[in-house]
Amino acid sequence: MTTSPCASDALPGGTVDTPVQEVVNNEDGTLGGLRLTDGQVVARRVIAVATWMEARIEGLGGLKLPVEDLPDNMGRRFASGMAGTTEVPGVWVAGNATDLAAQVGASAAAGALAGAHINSMLATADTNAALAATQGETPAL
C-alpha cells in the first residue's frame, strides 16, 4: 500500500490533507513551499518526508511467506523469528527483507546469523541420522 505525500500544517488553521504535486523553490533557489494537487502553494522553510518501506518480494509469492505491517503505516516486511526463521519450513529471511531499516553491516550480520542457524540444523540432522544408522534405526525427518 502506498499513499500520496500530503502537506501537514502545524500553524493555526489545521492540517492540509491534499496530496503534494511538487516542491516549489524561491527565486534564490531556497525552499519556498509545496504545490498541492489542487494548485494551492503552501509556504514551507523545512520539509520532512516519511517513506513507505517494503521488502522486495518479486518471485517469492509461491513460498507464501508471511508478511506483516510495521507500526504507524511505515511499511511491510517478511515476518520472522530468531535467526531469520519463518513459518515456512526450510526458508529463512535476513537483512532488510525482515529489518527494513537495516544497512549493509546489519544485513550481513543477520545473514551470517541465519547461515549459522541453518548450518546448526543441518549438522544436528546429520548427527541424528548417523546415530540412528549405528543403532539400526530409520532416522526421523
From TrEMBL:
Residues 1-20 are annotated as: Disordered. InterPro entries: FAD/NAD-bd_sf. This is Thioredoxin reductase. It comes from Kibdelosporangium banguiense.
